[in-house]
Amino acid sequence: MNITALDRPASLVERVCQQLAALIRGSEDDGERWLPSERSLAAKLGVSRTVVREATKRLEQQGMLEIQHGTGIKIVDRLHRPLNDSLLLLLPDMAERLQHLNDTRLSIEPDAAAFAAQRATPEQLRTLRRVQSQLEKAPNNAAAIEADMAAHHAIADASGNPIYRLILDSLAEIGISSRLRTIGRIGKKTAVAHHEAIISAIEQRDPEAARAAMRLHILAAGQDMDLPALKTGN
Known about the structure:
Strand 2 (65-68) and strand 3 form a beta hairpin. The longest helix is centred in the middle third of the chain and has 26 residues, at 94-119. The termini are far apart. The mean pLDDT is 85. This protein has helices at residues 12-26, 38-45, 49-61, 81-90, 94-119, 122-137, 141-158, 162-170, 172-186, 189-203, 207-224, 227-231, and strands spanning 33-35, 65-68, 72-75. The chain folds into two domains: 12-22 and 32-75, Arc Repressor Mutant, subunit A; 81-225, Up-down Bundle (Four Helix Bundle (Hemerythrin (Met), subunit A)), CATH 1.20.120. By secondary structure, it is mainly alpha-helical.
């Protein structure tokens, strides 16, 4: 006898989560953003305050909201936080963490660059040029690291796939550690040259060249991190 599981209908809390998430995504990002009060949301959605409270707690855990007791419900952009915190617990060893980071980047970022070459809008191309200029003009390693990360995030945005950006955001703190081992040790010259090759390929709408340039860049970063030295404490 074959028994097929029935699709479980979304609970009331899940439906409220979905509505609030849609409201958050559609809100204008012009400084601080807040949801209406719990009482107001309950009235507008036609549900109890208990349901609203549970839904907002879930969205807070997912990084979309910050509940400030006595103040209100603030909209935030921390979707990456739960994964980032889990990675630090899962991989406490720095050298191991950076090696896995590079492996992950190799499986994701070359394809993101290829998609960017196919899909980037004129505005996104201008953004890539702007962050490249910031990297070239960075007065110190801290500014160079910030510009380097901004470039990779801009490429992920230009890919047209928001999951790429979410993954990179989730890896941001580990990404800073990796760049401290590259730009922080040997300077920005290599990063500037590699980024120029990637961005030029994207501008020329050449996905294979963009993919190859990004792969070369990440492989070189893995070598520049000098992970064997990190394992021995150097």
